[in-house]
Amino acid sequence: MSLLPPPPPPPPTVQAVHKGVPDDREPRTRPKLMFWDRIKVLVILGMFVALTAAYLQSKVPIMSYGEALQDQLRAKWWVVALMGLEVVRQIHYVICERASGYHLFWQRKVFGGWERRMGRLNPWMRYRLQRFVKVGFVALLLMLLLAWKWNTTLWGAISEFPGNIWDNAFAPMSGMPFLVYIFFIASISLFQLVFFYAIFFVGGIDTYKPGEIRTRFTDVWGQDPVVARVRETVDFLERPKEIEAKGGYVPGGILLWGPPGTGKTLMAEAIAGETGKPYVFVDPSAFIQTFMGVAPMKVKWLYRKLRKMSLKHGGVVVFFDEADALGNRGGAAGEAQMSSFRASQTCGGTHYISGHSCSTLFAQHVADHPAPEPAPARGLRKFIINGGGGSGSFSGALQALLTEMSGLAKPRGFLTRRLRSFLGMKAKQPPKYRILHILATNRPDTLDSALLRPGRIDRKYKVGYPHSDGRRRTFEGYLNKITHELTPTQISRLSVITPYYTGAKIKDIVNEAVIVAMREGREVVTWPDVLKAKTLKTFGEADDWKYTHLERHQVAIHEASHASAMYLLRKRHVIDVATIERRGDVGGFVNDIPLEERFGGWRSEIEIDVMTYLASLAGERMFFDGDNSTGVGGDLRSSTMLVTQMLAFSGMGTTVGSRGVTIPEMTGASSRPSDGVDRQFLETAMGKQIEAKLQELLGNVSSLLAEHRWFVLAIAHALETHLTITGEDVDAIFRGTPGPTLDGWVYHTDDFRLSYEAYHLAAMEAHRNHGQPDKALPVLGLGVPFGRSVARGSESFPPPASPTEGQR
Question: Which of 461, 560, 641, 693 lies in disulfide reach of 716, CB 3.0 to 4.6 Å?
């Protein structure tokens, strides 16, 4: 019986439409401000008025400071108005921190309404309006300042501005005091140097304030084990005193590694969103600079910023994306060779042998797999990047990063420390900087070992491909954002037929399904839309290629033979799609997917794989009088390689010794022999065993296809009719049930047996005479009621085997 539940018949109308509502991530009240943040604007404005009053008193000595202050308050009434507005603003903030209804009214109705109105504008128009307002506001402030300086009105300052600027720009500098002139020249030089370095400091580092990241752990789907462990680290960051009271310390670094698209960046954002701490996104390529010394300065500037944010907010999360771009200080080739050697030792073989034996095996592995030598930098490039000597990561960025990550307990306050020392006071302990480092990479073997040591990176988590339940949850999450009619059974099936799919791939498939539905003028995404989207994203768009009638039939027989053997033999796999549509150099293919994710393979399973490959040769010879095409060449190459691996390297034959000792090049995945491989290998005794095994398996699959001749022809007809069918369609053909693309019951009728056999005989005659068939492809099932019970055929058209005989 089928391991996958059959889909329900398509409903005449949409039975259940799911459309999700975005989660409300908005906090109910405003985060509380610290006392200094409440009063700093008032203090600055008050100091400004106080200084102007002091300046006025110095100019008019007969005035008391109180009179000068009163005069400035009357003259600078706008400052008093700003202070009043600031008081109102702080009162507003206090109410927002305590009354959720008041806060949500302003956020959703007032500010939200403004955003909705602005969102209706064209994006380019909105950008230009914002730029115009910003420039106008700066110009207005400048004119107000000049009007105060020139003791005139705003309109007077605007009218006098061009003339005054022109006169002052070309005024002689001879009257300027010498010290002022020297200071002016030095300032210009210093400004040029600062501006030059500032160009390289811009970019690569983005800072998000607390509350701006709205991602939560509930948004990370399919990675529940990793999320559970990361939650633990986040708890330590939020409650550090609990672990520190027991003599421990808060883990300061997490390495997230795994294939692209599995959610490493999303998980880092979720950490920042859950903690409510500032989030700093760092692109490591920002530290690869052209000039020596810029990158270390940028690293030190970054950590000064991180320490300040940590003290202000009680912690900060810094995320280094694509951390392998940070480089390695050397030894990467040796570490890569050791990793490759350990990977080649199955069952952890390096752990249960002696050190001498391990060294012997490793030396042989290095001899068989030498590390490539990197091309040295030359000339000016070597001087600029490596500083005229030196080596390792570019411009010392990695060294600076290692130093900063180890020195997070740096004391702050130069004057405070000197004053305490002068007064004989005890030195103040440096503050604890709560900085959580998160590194993400899909190449952890290239990272410097010093970067990954405990104390810098304390926890390493693999963010791998999500398991079946995780994929189902991911599909549910993305499908809830659109309008669809998929049932829970169909979503579960999607999770099964998408092994090794990442969250990014799943999101892309759902988006493509929406596009497919829109292309056909529908608002609701259906099950066939998702299947079509999956085929497009997995295999690409088919070429606009038209077969001749004979070639179409030949290719269909070839692929139908593969599909029949795959369906009848593979118990742990299901067919995903079978097609004869051409894509590049591939005329057609049958793709299957595993029902369960397994670690290794067994002899019986490999033999089934070989028979699936050889089915094309057996089918072509059976249906075309012993003739076969060159299209079986790739199948024969793959089957020969698999049998060679079985008998010569995996002990699955009559011999035990591994040919990997004498022919190590053939132990890899490549089937192309290198110069060191014995090119007469198949002429040896081992080669004869391989040929005998291939002949045995070819005979087995030939008997299987001869027994199920009707099944091969039925799949071939479906491929010629529809060009592409799904695995559910193949199952429907075998069982005589409805499928997503076709109705399988028509292939269990005498009409099909007689008409398609006649068409095939015409195709065989055309093949012999190098012509074209004189019969058209039969069109089946017209005028037959849906679900009609049909009689089985004669002996030449046997019924399918029962599920108890091992069929799925």
Answer: 560
Q: Is residue 126 part of a domain?
A: no
Predicted pLDDT at 77: 85
631 lies in the same domain as 528? no
Please, are residues 695 and 617 in contact by the beta-carbon 8 Å criterion?
no
Rounded to whole angstroms, how far apart are CA atoms 83 and 145?
18
Average pLDDT estimate for 202-216: 83
| CA 594/CA 596 separation, integer angstroms | 5
- CB within 8 Å of 341: residues ≥ 6 apart: 350, 361, 362, 365, 366
As a residue count, the chain comes to: 808
Using the 3D structure, point to which of 539, 564, 583 is the last residue of a domain: 539
Q: Residue 550 CA to chain centroid, in angstroms?
A: 44
At residue 25, the pLDDT reads: 58
Of 438, 117, 383, the C-alpha closest to 270 is 438
Q: How many CA atoms lie within 13 A of 241 on its CB side?
A: 1
For residue 329, the model assigns a pLDDT of 64
In a domain, 374, yes or no: no
- What is the rounded CA–CA span in Å between residue 530 and residue 475? 11
Segment among 85-89, 239-243, 456-460 with least mean pLDDT:
239-243
Q: In angstroms, rounded to a whole number, what is the distance separating the alpha carbons of residues 397 and 323?
A: 12
Inter-residue contact 759 to 775 (CB < 8 Å): yes
Find the distance separating the first CA and the last CA of the chain, reported in whole Å. 5
Nearest 5 degrees, angle CA 387-CA 390-CA 396?
70
Q: In what order do the strands lie in the sheet with 573-579?
A: 589-594, 573-579, 724-726
Which amino acid makes up residue 264?
A: K
Which token pair is 151? 């003791």
18, pLDDT greater than 90:
no
Tell me, what's the pLDDT at 714? 93
Look at the alpha carbons of 467, 470, 476, 478 in this order and tell me if their dihedral is positive or negative.
negative
**The pLDDT of residue 324 is above 50:** yes
pLDDT (mean) for 31-51: 89
Q: At what angle do helices 397-406 and 294-313 cross, to 10 degrees?
A: 30
Q: What predicted TM-score, i.e. pTM, was given to this entire model?
A: 0.65
Asked if the structure places residue 44 within a domain, the reply is no
HSE on the CB side for 524, CA within 13 Å? 12
Range of the domain at 507: 468-539
Query: How far, in Å, CA of 57 to CA of 50, rounded?
Result: 11
Would you state the pLDDT for residue 716?
92
Q: Is the pLDDT of residue 561 over 90?
A: yes
Of 517, 539, 561, the residue that ends a domain is 539
Q: Which two tokens stand for residue 486?
A: 């998929």
Residue 480 CB neighbours (<10 A): 13
For 381-427, give the DSSP string. HHHHHHSSS--SSGGGHHHHHHHHHH-TT----HHHHHHHHHHTPPP
pLDDT band at 794 (very low <50, low <70, confident <90, very high): very low
Give the whole-angstrom CA distance, residue 126 versus residue 118. 7
Cα–Cα distance, 797 to 181 (Å, whole number): 105
Vertex 410, ends 408 and 416: CA angle to 5°? 150
**Is the pLDDT confidence value at 251 over 70?**
yes
Which pLDDT tens digit goes with each residue over 648-692?
877 777 777 676 666 655 544 444 444 444 556 667 778 888 888
Distances (CA, A) of 140 to 86, 147, 156, 229, 449: 20, 10, 13, 54, 56
**DSSP-H helix ranges across 4-122:** 35-59, 65-75, 77-98, 100-104, 112-119
Contact between residue 501 and residue 494 where contact means Cβ atoms under 8 Å apart:
no
The alpha carbon dihedral of 190, 191, 196, 202 has a sign of positive
Task: Flag whether pLDDT at 184 surpasses 80.
Answer: no
Domain count, the chain: 3
Tokens 């100091």: give the residue: 47
Q: Do residues 728 and 650 both lie within one domain?
A: yes
Q: Quick one: which H or E segment has residue 607?
A: helix 603-623
Interhelix angle 77-98/35-59, nearest 10 degrees: 170
